[in-house]
Each structure stands twice: as C-alpha cells, then as structure tokens.
Amino acid sequence: MHYITVHDKTFQPFLSEMEIQGAVRKIGKSLNQDYKGKQPLFIGVLNGAFMFCSDLLKTVDIPCEITFVRLSSYDGMESTGEVRSIINLQEDIAGRDIILVEDIVDSGLTMQKALTYFETLNPKSVAIASLLVKPDCLKCEIDIKYCGFEIPEKFVVGYGLDYNGHGRNFKEIYQLRQE
Ligand code: IMP
After folding, report:
1. What is the pLDDT of residues 39-98, one digit of tens each?
2. From CA 113, how far away is CA 111, in angstroms rounded?
3. With a threshold of 0.90, does the pTM exceed it?
4. How many alpha carbons fall within 13 Å on the CB side of residue 82?
5. Could you give the maximum distance between any two Cα atoms of the chain, in Å?
6. Cα of 62 to ligand 1 centre, how many Å?
7. For ligand 1, atom 15: residue with the closest CA
8. Nearest CA to ligand 1 atom 19
9. Annotated catalytic, 106?
C-alpha cells in the first residue's frame, strides 16, 4: 500500500484518479442534461474545490460562467460548526441558475449557511454539486443534488482537500490510516 504522510498523520489510498475522474464525468453529464438551454453560474468554494471545479468545468459543454467564493467552518480535522464568512462574490446572481461546487460536505453546516446567504440574493435556482459527502456526519437536512461519492466518517486528503493546508496537490484521495 502506498501510504503518504501529511504533517503528523499517515494516510492510505482511498479513491484513485480514475475513480474520481469517472465520478466527475458523471456529474458533468447530468449537469449538461439538466441545464440544457440555461446558462448556469458555477460558484466554486475555495480552497478545497479548486481541483474538482477545474475538472468538472472541462466536462461541461453548455454555456456557463464560473466564479469563486471562500467560506470555511473547519480548523485542522474538526468542523467548528461556525462558518466564518462568504468572501468575494462580485457577480449579480439575481435570476440566475446557480450551481455551488464543493469538495466535501461533512456536517453540512457550511453549505447550509451558504445556501441561506445565496437565497437572500434572489437567484432563480441553487443546486449543490459536491464530490464527496459524509452522510453519517450530517447535522442538518441538505439536498446535495449532485454527489460523486458517499464516504464513511473518516478524514480524507488529496484532490483539493487538505489537512492544515497540506495535501491538496495529490490527484488521488487518501483516507486517514487505520490504526
Ligand atoms: P461542513 O461544514 O462540516 O460540511 O464542512 C465542510 C468543509 O470542511 C469542507 O469544505 C472542507 O473544507 C472541510 N472538510 C470536511 N471534511 C473534511 C475531510 O475529511 N478532509 C478535509 N477537509 C474536510
């Protein structure tokens, strides 16, 4: 097994590049069908979703735009449950079809807070596309319309996901090693 070390922790391979790219293509295909004739605005959530956004947009062949925002509720390996702020949305999203692109939904609090905020700006619709979802960790009801993988309650890194800032650069996803 090809283990990696990030800071003080060891991680084991979890999702291969091929599995990830397959899931990304599948989501892209659904979006192309569902948003045919529309011009959605993708809103990528930084930093974690940068890689997913980049690969996802390459599979989208309908007219669309992309922008990025920053919001966070995480500190190290724990969700603080408190979203700090939503920074950098300059686009007018009133009347637009919005697709929020997230790397992972854990407690769901980040996305719930983001949804509440975006809804005050009167978009036509808002859907969430998240590469990963940890269903056992959800602390609120949230509709993840486009999901790549449902994964167990274990910390993961790679493909944009970090552990204290490191590990985002791997093209695969690694899971905290079984002790
Ligand atoms: P939530 O608000 O608890 O759903 O947390 C969502 C955010 O926490 C994501 O955007 C990630 O930045 C971070 N996060 C949650 N789980 C993990 C993980 O397993 N690895 C890395 N980051 C994570």
Report:
1. 999 999 999 999 999 999 999 999 999 999 987 555 556 666 555 556 678 889 999 999
2. 5
3. yes
4. 3
5. 50
6. 29
7. 106
8. 155
9. yes
pLDDT tens-digit readout, 96-155: 999 999 999 999 988 998 898 889 899 999 999 999 999 999 999 999 999 999 999 999
Beta-strand relationship, 173-176 and 9-15: antiparallel
| 36 class by beta-carbon count within 10 Å (0-12 exposed, 13-18 middle, 19+ buried) | exposed
Q: Which of 8, 92, 106, 136 is catalytic?
A: 106
Q: Ligand 1: list residues with CB < 6 Å.
A: 48, 73-74, 79, 102-110, 155-157, 161-162
Rounded distance, CA 151 to CA 148, Å? 10
The two tokens of residue 150 are 């449902």
d(CA 96, CA 118): 11
**Cβ neighbours for 121, distance < 8 A, ≥ 6 positions apart:** 92, 93, 94
Residue 113 CA, closest ligand 1 atom number: 2
